[in-house]
């Protein structure tokens, strides 16, 4: 299966973002279901209220209707239960139908074909709607009633009252608009409240992250302060890790330094005996070569021991202060050749690593430049900040006005034990030490010709982290 580089470079969501998204989805689901339930409940309640109201109009017409002699129906003569029954096209209609062909309708229904004729048996009732008609959808309530005339003969009548759905729909729309507006506002308030609660709850974690960043920048030696009980174990372990890392680095450097020191002493004794002439010439040459090789290995391993890699928590080292001490010593050594070093070091140029690594880099590059320079050496350093990174990067550049290095010789001179010119004193391991340190710090080393001085140019770039 292929690897998608965009997946590895995509930044994970923060805890607050994850919690806010999860809470938002849960709120949307909950408030949505609550809104649907309330809407359905209100719809049923409003529909039941409409039925009761229409039923009340029917009872009012029922009370004002009577049957005379011969089964003649006396139409309602009292004022209607609502004034809309008197206004044509008002949307509220009443109709009375009888088995003997009797038909009566309210003034509001005159001239309209509503299709409200219905015959129900006495005691039956029905409520339906919305039923489509010539005036739109209507809700209809009907009731069957039996009257007795003067002879005791039953007269069946069906009372029907109808109302268009316009008022009901308008009422329902107002409720829904109000309901969902308030639910949306409530959801937004709950989300904001959840966000505030999350920020308050996660503040100790942000504090741990901030304190770790301070330790990472070298502004503090350890995590300090009171943390919640849930984080106390974590911060205690982190402090132990920081201390153990520093002790481990120091111990490893000391062990390697002691080993190198122990080897250099017997090597010095052997060298001195050779110089006294106690060994014949052929053996002396072989022994001298092997001693020289062992001496080079000791120097190389000692220098590697000084390189501690990239520690997790380290204080930044100022480049300018260490460079000045090195250059002063080299200028004295090469005073007879009148070689001087110029500085272009920015004030905030910092190296995030052990001071020994910086001294190895500057010392080897500057010593190499002084050996090959005619009169001028240029040392420059500048920070390379990047947005979103805790530590800014660093660029170090050493240039000289010597003969320079051919492009096809760059890879060769970076090999351990190889010198650019056998006539120049040295063991040939200085640049390889620099290369090792550069690789350890995941930095890059570029060798080219200096545009300003015309000689060699060594440029090292440490990335921001």
From TrEMBL:
Residues 199-250 form the HAMP domain. Its main location: membrane. The chain crosses the membrane at residues 20-43, 179-202. GO terms for cellular component: plasma membrane. This is histidine kinase. One of its GO terms (molecular function) is phosphorelay sensor kinase activity. InterPro entries: HAMP_dom, HATPase_C_sf, HATPase_dom, His_kinase_dom, HisK_dim/P_dom, HisK_dim/P_sf, PhoQ/CarS-like_HATPase, Sig_transdc_His_kin-like_C. The keyword Chloroplast does not apply.
């Amino acid at each position: 299966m292929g690897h998608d580089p965009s997946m590895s470079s995509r930044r994970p969501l923060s805890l607050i973002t994850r919690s806010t998204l999860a809470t938002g989805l849960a709120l949307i689901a909950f408030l949505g279901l609550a809104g649907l339930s309330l809407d359905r409940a209100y719809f049923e309640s409003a529909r039941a209220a409409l039925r009761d109201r229409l039923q009340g109009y029917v009872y009012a017409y029922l009370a004002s209707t009577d049957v005379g002699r011969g089964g003649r129906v006396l139409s309602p003569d009292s004022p209607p239960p609502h004034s809309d029954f008197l206004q044509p096209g008002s949307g509220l209609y009443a109709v009375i139908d009888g088995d003997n062909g009797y038909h009566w309708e309210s003034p509001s229904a005159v001239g309209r074909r509503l299709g409200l004729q219905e015959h129900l048996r006495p005691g039956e009732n029905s409520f339906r709607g919305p039923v489509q008609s010539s005036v739109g959808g209507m809700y209809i309530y009907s009731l069957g009633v039996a009257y007795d005339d003067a002879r005791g003969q039953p007269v069946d009548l069906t009372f029907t009252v109808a109302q268009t759905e316009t008022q009901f729909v308008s009422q329902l729309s107002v409720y829904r608009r109000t309901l969902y507006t308030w639910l949306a506002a409530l959801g937004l308030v709950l989300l904001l409240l959840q966000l505030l609660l999350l920020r308050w709850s996660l503040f100790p974690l942000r504090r741990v992250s901030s304190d770790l960043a301070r330790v990472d920048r070298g502004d503090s030696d350890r995590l300090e302060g009171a943390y919640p009980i849930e984080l106390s174990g974590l911060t205690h372990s982190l402090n132990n890790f920081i201390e153990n890392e520093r002790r481990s680095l120091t111990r490893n450097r000391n062990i390697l330094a002691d080993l190198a020191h122990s080897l250099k002493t017997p090597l010095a004794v052997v060298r001195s005996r050779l110089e006294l002439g106690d060994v014949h010439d052929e053996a002396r040459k072989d022994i001298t070569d092997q001693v020289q090789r062992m001496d080079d290995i000791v120097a190389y391993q000692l220098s590697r021991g000084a390189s501690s890699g990239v520690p997790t928590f380290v204080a930044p080292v100022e480049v300018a202060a260490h460079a000045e001490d090195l250059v002063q010593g080299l200028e004295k050594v090469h005073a007879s050749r009148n070689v001087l070093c110029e500085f272009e070091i920015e004030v905030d140029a910092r190296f995030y690593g052990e001071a020994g690594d910086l001294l190895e880099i500057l010392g080897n590059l500057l010593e190499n430049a002084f050996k090959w320079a005619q009169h001028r050496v240029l040392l420059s350093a500048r920070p390379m900040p990047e947005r979103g990174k805790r530590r800014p990067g660093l660029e170090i550049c050493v240039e000289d006005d010597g003969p320079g290095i051919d492009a096809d010789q760059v890879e060769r001179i970076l090999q351990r034990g190889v010198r650019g010119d056998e006539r120049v004193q040295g063991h040939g391991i200085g640049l390889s030490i620099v290369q090792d340190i550069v690789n350890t710090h995941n930095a890059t080393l570029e060798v080219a010709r200096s545009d300003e001085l015309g000689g060699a140019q060594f440029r090292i770039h440490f990335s921001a982290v």
